[in-house]
Amino acid sequence: MKKLVNLEFSDGDFHLGFGNNKFQVKTTDMRCNFKQTTITLPPAPDIPSTYEKWKQVYDWLTSSDTRGGFKKTQTNFSPSECNKLARNLHEELNQWLSPLQLQLNSVFKLSPDSEIHLLINTKNIISDATKDILHKLPWHELDYFLETNSLEAAICFNELKSISQTPQPEEKYIRRARIISIFGDNRDIDTKADEAILNKLKQRGGELIVLQQPQRPDLVKLWDEPCDILFYGGHSNTTRSYQSGVIYINSDDYLDLQEIRKTFRASVDKGLKLAIFNSCDGLGLARQLADLNLPYVIVWREPVPDEIAQKFLEYFLNSFTGGKSLFKSVREARDKLQELTKNTDIEKQIPGVSWLPIICQNTVDVPPTWKDMGGLTGKVPNCPYKGLSAFTEEDADFFFDRDEFIEKLVKAVNTKSLVPIIGASGSGKSSVVFAGLVPQLRNIGKVQIVSFRPGDNP
């Protein structure tokens, strides 16, 4: 059973407190219960400074390995100091939120099958600095939910509303989940790993449109092609105003999303439901996309080490394409980053890094599932038939109906010093050699096999 908890902040700050915050709880069972009240959160002046201290240590520990940022000189900061500050922040956050946890205890009781979506809405807060801290706190760390491990949080920048999207023409063929992936500037990071993870979605009914270090005109695909998910891997950052962000689409150019507002509006209107920015410091990007009514966005709230960004993406997609909800998939990916690592792995050396991915929700509409988008929750077996592609040696078990010709080739190779195979383009010369002749020669043994192809300038 899903329980939706909406905490809508009134204006305030950490020094004076937040009064008359709207608190709503809705259960999505057959009765669809709905309760609303107000709560007051007391002053908590230490929380911003504790977060900034943790962030300072975190930045020094990760500065040489992040998706964005520059290497710094060595300091005396250590993982143990980072861990101490992370624990302090956890304790201060739970103490501050004790009025919220008392309200939760009076509204519903947790069960093992509960799935809690906590939405933090900051639209009424005037101070950008206060909003920024609220957006970065580890809300999923509430002790009240530790026993069931069922909580995942999202942040909301604006008034929630239903997103109206233009109905698309009925598909003549089987619907597939369509992903546009943009791989931007990859200096000092490995976006090939992200690409390999996304390529696995093809076995789950995904269709990929890939833009490698695109020029601006290449982004017309985002305008013209209906898609369900937008993925970006590369460098990014949030501006000092907290209101916007930039992505580095190639090694020579960066892009403020404000510059392609109409492109994103067209994409949302055609059905874009989810954007994933597997890049650094993405809250500014999420803020801009909220203004454009993109339903759901996943970003990292601070710079992130390359290896961790890759693991999170893999863990999240495994859960999401396996049939889990969007919120549960993020929670499972976060938990795996925390627990399924060795003491020598980078996740263990940087306490708090698993806090950093966050869902940004901009709609009252139910989060989409992979199946909703047309994806498959079970893997599609590899098709043994190559179509117009050439068979390789690995495909020998599926290559058939050329036995007589292959037998002649084997005899010719054993008796002649040169055996050319000549035929029209596309007639199957490569297939008969690599999937037919070569495996036969390997079985014979004592044959040296060398394969090479001429390049563009042979």
UniProtKB/TrEMBL annotation:
CHAT domain boundaries: 198-342
Residues in Novel STAND NTPase domain copies: 384-458
One Pfam family of this chain: nSTAND1
Signal peptide, first to last residue: none
Domain of life, source organism: Bacteria
Record-given protein name: Uncharacterized protein
Organism: Calothrix parasitica NIES-267
